[in-house]
Write the structure tokens for this entry.
Amino acid sequence: MNPPLQVVILAAGKGTRMNSALPKVLHELAGQPLLGHVLGAAAALGAARTVVVYGHGGEAVPSAFAGSGAHFVLQEPQLGTGHALREALPALAHEGITLVLYGDVPLIQPDTLRAVVSGASAGLSVLTVKLDDPTGYGRVVRDAAGRVLRIVEQRDADARVAALREVNTGILAAPAGRLAAWLARLTTDNAQSEYYLTDVIALAAAEGVAVHTSQPAQPWEVMGVNSREQLAAMERTVQRETALRLMTAGVSLADPQRLDVRGTLDCAPDVHIDVGCIFEGRVQVGPGARIGPYCVIRDSRIEAGALVAAFSHLEGAQVGSSARVGPYARLRPGAVLGQAAHVGNFVEIKATSLGEGSKANHLAYLGDAHIGRNVNVGAGTITCNYDGAHKHRTVIEDDAFIGSDTQLVAPVRVGRGATLGAGTTLTKDAPEGQLTVSRARQLSVPGWKRPSKNP
């Protein structure tokens, strides 16, 4: 039976180079805060307890993750990474394995962390990586036999050590009791007068404890965020990896570099996505569907063979198979389009179902309505669903025809097969199979002249 795992996420840094009042770990990457990504990795490992050490930003960090199940510990003042972990000790168990992560290293993958945790069963496990340019990172110093002796921070490194390319990522795991004992022995005898967590490696080696090392599958997994430039670069890394995953699964991307997924995008094979699209929350796209350029789609489901044309905005919507949306359409939460339904340019739909084969092709607002099958909604149609205090529903039954420039004052019902003449303001139910017209009488005034300006 594996020993229980507890995770400590160090997230107390101010992020001075971000030049922001927002704590660094709350800046967003691919649609969620940096810390959210790390908490997700911890959850994927099945950690029995997760502790987040925070500092700058007051209660902003705990408040942002109030429902995460993590335990939050304030580090005040901030005296280094070793001190941060010390502050977390009262919230940790004395048994099991403790894994240390960082709130500004968001791309670490669960499989990489599993290797780190596995190595801790024999003593101390450290995640390292070899970089072409190791500037700024602590160097891993080994003996002639390749055993890890210590980590030397950049500011404390001489020329020989600075030339080493294997660097410490800061991520480590160890038996909880041993780690606590090493932390108690840390000193501030270094260039920054701080308690370096990395000094536990030298303490472990001096005791003859095996120091296991492992490496990430990709170097970008251990890249940290210290500036907005680095955050922007990491965003493109995330989007590139997402694009590669989608294309491997059979999705065609017009330009993989012009895709933004800020959440989860699940696509079946033979989906085609044009340039400049943004996907937020959870979006599901069925086989053969096509997404036109510059669409924004959030928390929506698009069925097989559907088309979402250019510049359309969807949120909380369901688009049936072979349906057509846009261009320039807006589907708001609760919009449900049946099979082969059409919603055209400058049509807005909210909390409305549009039945199979029904069409609203031009310049309409349909809110709080149920629209049956094979209904034609003319240009300029509005469901007047709000009386200033309450919302009311409109029902349009199958095979109805709604003429252009019609206002349906809810609550109101249009019967099956009914026709509403153009320009109708409907305030009473329209009977099925009949023509209903409501218009002012047309007048022509002989001799009338349009007003003109004085010469």
